[in-house]
Amino acid sequence: MMGQAIAPAILGSAMNMKYNSTLKASLPAEVSRLADQATMTSLAIPCASVGVGDGIAAGDSSCGNPDGKATLDQTVSAIRNSMEAGLRIVYILGAIAMLLTFLTICTIPQISIDAEVEDKKVP
Q1: Of 42, 51, 52, 59, which has fewest CB within 10 angstroms of its CB?
Q2: Dihedral angle at the C-alpha atoms of 5, 6, 8, 9, nearest 10 degrees?
Q3: Strand, coil or helix: what is 110?
């Protein structure tokens, strides 16, 4: 029960730290230069990440910037790579936890249910 409460906190924190560090390292220089911390955190609006505000026509993949398409592609690629790196660390930590659990289980001595256990407290 305690593992179900603690695991999401530990794995979520590890994933978030890895995602953020990988994203900051792999974002295009133009996006890093133009984006503030709120934009870096959310990256919800692709046009905002290439430095263009509201009023973009639907279907305009360049977001009003001549290099917008290339920058947008690089940004999306950086986000995907960051998510992959974050998930990879979660799987690695999960595998380590499963290995430790398996080794712990292997060290528990086997006691048969049919075997009679003598009470050592009674003289």
Answers
A1: 59
A2: 120
A3: coil
